[in-house]
Specification:
2 domains, mainly alpha, 2 strands
């Protein structure tokens, strides 16, 4: 196994798996503060499914079982679903007064940042993550085929 080098990927790439897996119990716990509507249950189920999908896709990338070009598009779609769910749940809880205000406010800020907040692209915080990721992918495909945005630590 390659535990000392983290299989050639930076630690943040591995943290993403934990990030989405630890969000699942949060999503399930938030249900008690939301109205018992079928749409809320379906949205929460879809978001939890997307959280699991992101973790699995990231593990497949980190174990070199899936190419970055394929993985990034699927992860971006699932991440958008999760961020939309965070915004929707926080907004619903805030408007109906069923969720404590600090929790709903935090969710509104977090959902906004996740869905379209500034991301890092080549060391600059300039554009939303998804747009940056696609632009970087397009740029590197033209210039250096096979390059990975979340590539090995040695820079190759």
């Amino acid at each position: 196994m390659c535990a000392s080098t983290l299989c050639g990927f930076p630690p943040i790439a591995w943290v993403m798996v934990l990030q989405f897996l630890t969000l699942i119990p949060v999503a399930l716990a938030l249900r008690r503060w939301l109205p018992p509507m079928r749409s809320v249950r379906l949205a929460t189920a879809a978001a939890v499914g997307a959280m699991v999908a992101v973790a699995i896709l990231q593990l497949l990338l980190l174990t070199h079982a899936l190419e970055f070009d394929v993985q990034v598009l699927l992860v971006m779609a699932a991440s958008q679903l999760v961020s939309s769910w965070v915004l929707t749940v926080s907004s619903t809880g805030h408007r109906r007064g069923t969720m404590p205000r600090p929790v709903s406010r935090f969710g509104l800020v977090l959902g906004g940042v996740l869905s379209g907040g500034p991301g890092h692209c080549r060391g600059r915080t300039v554009v939303p993550f998804g747009i940056c990721c696609l632009a970087h992918l397009r740029h590197t495909r033209r210039r250096t085929p096979g390059h990975r945005m979340v590539g090995p630590v040695d820079g190759t």
